[in-house]
Amino acid sequence: MTPTEAARDGVPDGRAGHAPGHPGREEAAVACTGLRYAFGESVAVDGLDLTVRAGEVFGLLGPNGAGKTTAIRCVTTLLPVPKGMARVFGLDVSADRMRVRRLLGYVPQQLSADSGLTGRENVSLFARVFDVPRRERRARVAQALEAVGLTDAADRLAKTYSGGMVRRLELAQALVSAPRLLILDEPTIGLDPIARTVVWEHIMAVRAATGMTVLVTTHYMDEADQYCERVALMHQGGIRALGTPRELTDDLRARRGDDSTPTLEDVFRDVAGSGLDEGGEFSDVRRTRNTASRVG
Ligand SMILES: Nc1ncnc2c1ncn2[C@@H]1O[C@H](COP(=O)(O)OP(=O)(O)OP(=O)(O)O)[C@@H](O)[C@H]1O
């Protein structure tokens, strides 16, 4: 089966064998089946079948408007699931919202840090919201700040932070509850290449230390290629291809039958075809986040 076929056919939801919310090796971190979400007449997610395995770094890629954020918001319980099913470590996100939320850390695209608070105060706020036990809070906040390299800047106001530091602060906010699943929506958008690398190094270090699952959306193909074990290419509300970056590029090369070395972007252009023109250019990051200026 080619990666494209695997995506089309969907994958099992991985529910068997373990109590929901207590992941075993084969329990899926995320399992969406036939997930559909529409804003009025506009269908944003159209029958999405997607499985993210426990412990993997999984990239959800696609152009502006592909439906990535909407799908993620369903998984994080921030949007309802009107049709289909979404599970997190076996828990139904509709039926078990609070338990699902306790398993998750979520870094949204929109700014989630308060510029008028210090880094430490921002992370402490999240520790309280996410019910980190009072006696553990101080240590857990310090650990989260340390994990993202912000210990020295912890007592400065967030408005004095660079864009990359703000993004790392938001990462600390999501990590303070020790999530089993970290979901990041465009974690590096608008950052310079060095700041992007630093953010990723911290994500990967925490993941190596904890074994948490990472689900990330990104427009940056080079990041997906470098850091994600598997990627799904999403377009017009559905998954068009799924596999390791290597599987996807090898598959395209085999289908082309030549010696070229295709990139993930080539794969995407191949599976999305002319529809790309309607949905936006794949690498066109129009809504550059520019975190630093927004914080200031
Ligand atoms: N609040 C909303 N109201 C109406 N339509 C919306 C809303 N949010 C998203 N949409 C539409 O749903 C579709 C999917 O949007 P979504 O933000 O999920 O895509 P995306 O893949 O995350 O894109 P981007 O990379 O630009 O964030 C788009 O057509 C978008 O215009």
From TrEMBL:
Pfam families registered for this protein in UniProt: ABC_tran (PF00005)
Basic and acidic residues compositional bias, start-end: 1-16
Annotated ranges, domain ABC transporter: 30-261
Keywords attached to this entry: ATP-binding, Nucleotide-binding
UniProt-recorded Gene Ontology molecular function terms: ATP binding
Ranges for region Disordered: 1-25, 274-296
Protein's name in the database: ABC transporter ATP-binding protein
Species for this entry: Nonomuraea salmonea
